[in-house]
Structure prediction request, 731 residues.
Amino acid sequence: MSVRQESDEREPGVPGSAGSTTPPSGPSLFRGLLRHTGEPLAAPPQAPANDTRPLEVELAERLDSVLAIAERLAASHDRQDLFRTIVDETMRALRADSTTIRILNDDRLDVAAWAGISDEVAASLPVFGRDEGWAGEVLRSGRVVARADVRGVRKHGYDRYDGVLEFAGELVAPLIHHERVIGSLAAVTFEPRAWTDGDVAFITTLATHAAIALTNAELFEQTETRAAQLGVLQAASARLSRAGSIEGIGRTVVEETRRIIDYHNARVYVLEGDDVVPIAFEGVVGAYEQVDFGLLRCKLGEGFTGWVAQRGKPLLINDANLDARGSTIPGTDDVDESMLVVPMRYDEATVGVITLSKLGLRQFDDDDLRLLTILADQAATAIESARLLARTQDLAGELRRLLDMSAELSESLDPRQVANLMAGHLARAMGVDECAISYWDRPAGLVESLGYYPESRVETMEPTYEVSGYPETMRVLERQEPVIIDADDPRADRAEVELLVRDGNHVLAMLPLVAKGQSIGLVELFSRTPITWDVERLQLARTMANEAAMALENARLYEDARNRADRDLLTGFYNHRFLHERLGEEVVRAQRARRPLSVLMLDLDDFKLVNDTFGHLFGDRVLAWTGELIRSTLRASDIPARYGGDEFAIILPETDEGEARATARRILDAFRDHPYVGEQRGPVPIAASIGVATFPDDGRTPTDLIAAADRALYRVKREGGHAAAAASEAA
Prediction:
């Protein structure tokens, strides 16, 4: 990140101008970094504003301050906590009178946090567009801007502060993450200030750490939000399954949608021939609160709802007045309105439509569309289930099984448990001896076994098999067509019959598992005796399979979301949060079984030099490589985690101190024997320091064990690194 210190042109008669300096660049800004041992850092002494200390002394003190702040930022995923830490510590370290953080939202740089000014003043600060004033200058250039005295300056938007905040010195750094500007960090003084190279170096480095921490916090919040949304969808699926009637399903949709998407008006329709008929309505604002159902009714192709009903494609409409496909409901006014219209599809056919409206432009986004699509698929299945229930009174008992299965499936988010429940319900409903549920790994050409009925046979199942050798199975998956194979049928595929007879079965029925129009797996129903099914019974099986497919897919989505929440995306290791949770479980297990348990804390030596020399992207690749190297030295039962930055932790169950030290030596040997080889670069030697702690001698709680291993680690660091030590030695 470059820096700009400049003099500002002033209006006639306004005295004073900013000074100009050229700061050192690159790694020389923070010489002495590699001597830092990671010990807790004291705050730098409060020097006067006209500080005349040597540059190297100032930079070294500022480095210690930055490292201490960066450590605090890395330990939190709370955005408000991060905002407060950044503005407070920036104001303290720079001895500024006020600091602010602005975050880029669309094309506006909004004030997000402040220090040194009142909330009333902060609320009155001017908001800049991405191309306006000093904000546009910082965002376009991506450089630090330092001005000693802006009093009387009328350009760069400083005139917009008149009557709000009077200040003189200003130092502004862009917040940049992966070459994308996400905001700015600014410090101001009420008196003129000649900013030093140390000031510039400090705010430049802190802005980099702040951008990374804020981006990580946002990703963490998104992961938690998505996991919560999936939980709501799972509960909504259960409620839809219990609704029973078409009208009840419509009411459930508008109520459950409110829990995940903010709207002003929601309407649910079903298709009856060429008519699109409303079955549920919910309005919460003004004219939206009451609408005659007769006015909502429309024809296929008429308005946004009719268009979606006819084509089966969703619409995300940012401005309803500008879209020619829309039409105004009689008796209502044209207003600025956003809309989200999603088809409810079942077996490739549109059975209904969900329409959401909200006053204002661009009120819905792609995440809203994704969530409503999932709910619409669940609602479509619920609607068809209700229709089937009404049409087939003679199958009332079997349909009760369908509802029971949906309710039972909704209580689990474990894909294998869901698959076992599915298999049991389908086997009993269809009167067969066995049922297998499999997942289709399309890219690999494999079918993966997930569940079986009876469950006692699960252990005998083949984990996976290649599907290419079974054309009838491929037909079910690719064309989504049910296939029945009878051992007595001379036209049946010989490979399928051979496999059928080998396992002592006589008839096999295969059904696709379809979620959101895509085949995700397979249901196989086995009978040891001859059996036939009528059309209605097969339709029941397909309905149950489709209902179960949604539950299975939601369980897999939840499992994926949980894995992302527990994993570090760069290394694939577990993250800091999961480490503490799992270590607590392992301590309890070791205590009950009276078995040893050890923890390794590992920190890369001189890793800051790698980042400063080759860049952070290169450093990220080194961290990913480090994860693979560590993983290659461990047992399957060992649990590695990324603790933060370039520090890793490894839980070693059933491992005493001697065995743990051997594992540490094995890791150090791997680093010594395998330098990192990057793209277009020669070998880069990477080394590490490791601390070892063992339960119960070094600690009886997760916190005590980590602290003991950490002390041993930093003893190694103080002695030069590239080695391992046990906590008992440190003591």
User: Anything to note?
Assistant: Residues 7-50 have pLDDT under 50 and may be disordered. The chain is about 45% helix and 25% strand. The CA atoms of residues 314 and 633 lie 50 Å apart.
